[in-house]
Automatic annotation (TrEMBL):
The keyword S-adenosyl-L-methionine is annotated on this UniProt entry: yes
Name recorded for this polypeptide: Adenosylmethionine-8-amino-7-oxononanoate aminotransferase
Entry similarity comment: Belongs to the class-III pyridoxal-phosphate-dependent aminotransferase family. BioA subfamily.
Residues of the site described as Participates in the substrate recognition with KAPA and in a stacking interaction with the adenine ring of SAM: Y18
UniProt key word Ubl conjugation: no
């Protein structure tokens, strides 16, 4: 199919994320991908390939077309691509669940596999609500979170996304009213810690859980905060009999410099969600882990089962490549690569701070963020980045990058140059 024919069909029929229908701008057509490069079907801004500065929305941590992950999918495909998980099980899913329990913080013991991060958060919320209903406390049905968060686009996750600045303000008045506190400061402030303690205590009788993104708030604003706040949450939740949920969908598998962001605080949640990098960007899969306390509570109820069961739950192909991705990550000194990328981002993005309109430049692990003092001209910023040979996806007032961990120093410098170009144009 010619490129113009494909784009015409795309514009007419394909609804892209966070876009109108029909589409008003043509996306770039990717013909193939390998390593950290996306090869375009037709050149754009004089470039026929782009360095991916986004890891395909933070998932492709090993880059593209990796032989180890390719082999995992091919080998599993020869055995079976899918089988229902109701009443049946299989080795890839069982081994994956055991591996996740092994590498996540104690005492997470039980694993519910699903097919997207949003669904993993839905399952986490359902676990918490059903736990309290099952142990005879149905009034505990609200969630507490801090502003600036993002937890997904399905119903319960939308209710704990930022209610004003988030993408789901449209649904205010329809979604369940949750309890919001101010966004966490970057550095530790005892006054803010006391605010968290006070609000959890005040609403304890109605709170099923506190849910937060640990250390890094992702698509809600790319903000960073002191890990010590996670300890405050853990202690307050324990004191007031409230469950604690960590959404590690964006932060899990090394992105912040530790395998899980929770590791930076030395605490464990009652429920943890992982996704995105779980399969190395190959297939859609996520997982919700919980403690025996949560699972045992549900098992005591009138309905002693978790009332959830996605059709593609535990998909063998996704399970096999997820297991291979975790093993590949842990077989190499990934932490050294993340530290190298962090150092490269700090050096490469430092000059951007001097551009007109730049409000802040910040780096955490393999995450680099430039915040402007105005809404970005997304089309202009994207064109500028593409002209520099880099793929970025700015939003609101933010230009950010989350490179694959295999990104070399030269390519990392080009990503920083692309961010610089986007910031200057946006």
């Amino acid at each position: 199919m010619r490129n113009d024919e494909l784009l015409a069909l795309d514009r007419a029929h394909v609804w892209h994320p966070y876009g109108p229908m029909p589409g008003r701008t043509d996306p770039l057509v990717v013909a193939s991908a390998s390593g950290v490069r996306l090869r375009l079907a037709e050149p754009a801004e004089g470039r026929d390939e782009l360095i991916d500065g986004m890891s395909s929305w933070w998932s492709a941590i090993h880059g593209y077309n990796h032989p180890v992950l390719n082999e995992a999918v091919k080998g599993q495909l020869d055995r079976m691509s899918h089988v229902m998980f109701g009443g049946l099980t299989h080795e890839p899913a069982v081994r994956l669940a055991a591996r996740l329990v092994e590498i996540t913080p104690e005492p997470l013991r039980h694993v519910f596999l699903s097919d997207s991060g949003s669904v993993a958060v839905e399952v986490a919320v359902k676990m918490c609500l059903q736990h309290w209903r099952s142990v005879g406390r149905p009034g505990k049905q609200r969630l507490l979170t801090w502003r600036g968060g993002y937890h997904g686009d399905t119903w319960q996750p939308m209710s704990v996304c930022d209610p004003q600045g988030g993408m789901h303000e449209l649904w205010s008045g329809v979604l369940q009213r949750q309890v919001f506190v101010d966004a966490p400061p970057v550095a530790y402030e005892e006054s803010y810690a006391e605010l968290l303690r006070t609000e959890i205590a005040r609403h304890a009788d109605e709170l099923a859980a506190v849910i937060v993104e640990p250390v890094v708030q992702g698509a809600g604003g790319m903000r960073f905060h002191d890990p010590a706040y996670l300890k405050v949450l853990r202690e307050a939740c324990d004191e007031h009999d409230v469950l604690l949920v960590f959404d590690e969908i964006a932060t899990g598998f090394g992105r912040t410099g530790t395998l899980f962001a929770a590791d930076q605080a030395g605490v464990s949640p009652d429920v943890m969600c992982v996704g995105k990098a779980l399969t190395g960007g190959y297939l859609s899969m996520a997982a919700t882990l919980c403690t025996s306390k949560v699972a045992d509570g549900i098992s005591q109820g009138e309905v002693p089962v978790l009332a959830h069961g996605p059709t593609f739950m535990g998909n063998p192909l996704a399970s096999a490549v997820a297991l291979a991705s975790i093993d590949l990550l842990l077989s190499r000194d990934w932490a050294v690569d993340v530290k190298r990328i962090e150092a490269g981002l700090r050096e490469g993005l430092a000059p951007v701070a001097g551009l007109p309109g730049v409000k802040d430049v910040r780096v955490c692990g393999a995450i680099g963020v430039v915040q402007l003092d105005h809404a970005i001209d997304m089309a202009a910023a994207t064109r500028a980045a593409v002209g520099a040979g880099v793929w970025l996806r700015p939003f609101r007032d933010l230009i950010y990058t989350m490179p694959p961990y295999v990104t070399g120093d030269e390519d990392l410098a080009r990503i920083c140059a692309g961010v610089h170009a986007a910031a200057a144009a946006g």
